[in-house]
Design goal:
By secondary structure, the protein is of the alpha+beta class. 30% of the residues lie in helices and 33% in strands.
Amino acid sequence: MTAARLPPVAVRRAGPDDAAAIAGLIREGFEGYRAFAPDGWEPPVLEAEIARTADRLRGRGAWARLAEAGGATLGVVAFLPHHVEDDLAHFWLLFVTESAWGTGLAARLHDAALEAARGAGYRRMRLYTPEGQARARAFYRRQGWRERGGAFAEPELGLRLLELRRPL
């Protein structure tokens, strides 16, 4: 199997004005969760996700990048400071549109976030991913992330999540 090809991709800083584009990518990713989510599960309401995303991007220490090509938004990556542990960054999100799967874009965005976190003085990162999201879990394992503890219920999202961590 050969990797998909993309037109030239530009990666740029993302801010609160990009919340709708980012929430659209999040929503697309969440649609895939239906394959493993409980019956009747629904992703968060798009308008609420846009507002939540904009608020997080306004926060102190938020770091986010968008990948774009040919006028389309193809991916997003972001991290936030942890509010208790100064040397720990929270890898908030990484979503790549399905048309960019297999292109290396997710790894490129992932690595950019890790490099930026290192440069900001963080020594470790953590993330949460759905227990049923096998594709993401395999990707993160390849990138050096390790599960910490067992799955736990996340009531707002309505899914069981796993915490993963990695040193920087």
